[in-house]
Amino acid sequence: MASNGDRDRVQRDGAVIRQESGVGIDIPLQTQYRPPSSTQVIISDSMVKEVQEAIDKLLNNKVESLPKEKHIRSIIIATWKEQGCNVFWTTLSKHDLASQALVCWKAMYVLHRVLRDGHAKSISRSTKYLSYLNTLQKRWAMFQGGYNKLSLTYLRVVIEKIKFHVKYPVVPSTFKIELAKVQYTSGDHLFQMEVDILEYESALLSLQGAIFGELDPSKGYTTQVAQCRVAPLVPVIEDQTGIYDLSYHVMQLLHSNLPAELLAGHRERYYRHYNAMRKFLLSSKSLSYVSSLTKIRELSIDPPIFVVEENINEVELMSPISENLPPPPLPEQSIPDESGKDDLIEQLLRENLELKQRLEELEEGGERKDKQIHALGTKLTQLKIALDELKKTRDEALEEKQRLTFEIENLRERTKMEETLNKQKAKLDETLEKLKRCILN
Description:
Distance between the termini: 89 Å
Keywords: Coiled coil
Order of helices and strands: EEEHHHHHHHHHHHHHH
Number of helices: 14
Helix content: 55-70%
Organism: Oopsacas minuta
CATH architecture of the domain at 1-32 and 42-167: Alpha Horseshoe
Largest sheet: 3 strands, antiparallel
Domain ENTH: 43-172
Number of strands: 3
Coiled coil: 345-441
InterPro entries: ANTH_dom, ENTH, ENTH_VHS, Sla2_fam
Shape: flat
């Protein structure tokens, strides 16, 4: 239930206005917990309290640290009990997301997890908050760098995700879909669907670039600060893996039913995303925290081919044949006599054989080059992974060195203190002996 301390919100035309850092942000009015009807789900006070405590613990911690999984799990389980996410949004809207970038960053991570793993109605119930999320997006677009940029790019991801799943309810929030359900019924529908898929992929790639841009390899990736920034990569990779399969399936359907030239823009953007995604997944494999929590796909260096010969029509158009033009004159040739025919046939056979051998040599050379390029690419990837591991080992060694140095300094201080105490004890013993002698005399 809404607490008595939440009186600073003012109702206006079915919305609630909260003043955060001088900025008015429209937050849709939360549904008050009415007595449940026969079709409503009973929302217990204990469940509301559990969700509120979990969100408060996640967002009230202003330290750059990894959000605790037990709190996120409690929130997700509550959406299944509630069959929605009203309790989640009621509590989330009380936090200041418009002036604290770190809080907004953590909130978007929790929201992404709720949209992915929460009850299916969490997506549709979140649509009324799109204007609120858009307002936050405009807010953080005014600032640069750090968690400002991270929050901005993450807001775009959750906004695009909500819009996509509402528009295409056949696709579940986890993107784990039976591809046979997506069939060619209308060219316009699938064409627009691929546009929306590529738009969400673009948002995911932007977030990935922002995260890697904020990481400092010299400080390692195992610190609390680094894990706070890379934690969203896990649901991002899981979304990306599912949407890649869906995108490939839709592209195949489109190319099977529409002219290739009509899909040139789709192919160009698809290949651009493919190369960026492949590089990102390779980089993510070096992050032990991410690779330990989710399976990271390894994409081939060669993207899928949807059109074998895209330029055939262009070549035909460039060299049209007109029936009105006379045929070109044939060059004059000397007609060999009967005695020279055998020699000419043998010469042509030799030339044909030489050409075949030359063609086979060129094909073998091309295959060898392809294998060498592939081997070099694999070796380069392995070297990058090894380099990242060495950097990680170096960072751990530096941390261990710092710890040992600190302990050595402490030991030195203790040794000095013990020496001082021993000297003082010796002086006291000497004074005591003198006193004893004086007393005896």
